């Protein structure tokens, strides 16, 4: 922050100044409240709200989801996390968000888009993390807990706010059209 005081407000890769970020207040609120319809994303955001902390794997998933599937400006996530995290550090938080969004100097490639279902199935196959933070899904079996919209049970849980495939394609198309 000493040499780059605008780290939390400026894309370090200038081509992202032209990214057509969406400003969808409903999507942002659903993400912040852990009501996206994607159990791993919602579990992470609920854990953050209740404890002020979240595991790094889940941080990467929720950041990717916000910036790529929802095409929401990374600065929205950066501000939210900075306000919520007990261990918030201005430089670390900003660089983490720029890494996840692909806008930083040492960034994940823009085309690296974490699939929250695949990540959940791989790293929490029994759904224990989800059961802890999204208790309304606790009764689902180990397979369906990752995709509750496929359940035949009536659930008090939101439907997905974005189609993962379409959100991914939209993000990639916007990235490809950025001036290089």
Describe the structure.
The chain has 180 residues and is mostly helical. Helix content is 48%, strand content 0%. It has helices spanning 25-33, 39-51, 56-69, 74-84, 90-101, 116-123, 128-133, 164-176. Helix 2 (39-51) crosses helix 3. The model has no long low-confidence stretch (mean pLDDT 94).
Short précis:
The chain has 180 residues and is an all-alpha fold. It has helices at residues 25-33, 39-51, 56-69, 74-84, 90-101, 116-123, 128-133, 164-176. The radius of gyration is 16 Å and the shape is globular.
| Cα Rg | 16 Å
Total strand segments: 0
Number of helices: 8
Distance between the termini: 26 Å
Output the keywords:
globular; 180 residues; mainly alpha; 0% strand
Blueprint of the fold:
Elements lengths: L24 H9 L5 H13 L4 H14 L4 H11 L5 H12 L14 H8 L4 H6 L30 H13 L4
Helix pairs in contact: 2-3, 3-5, 4-5
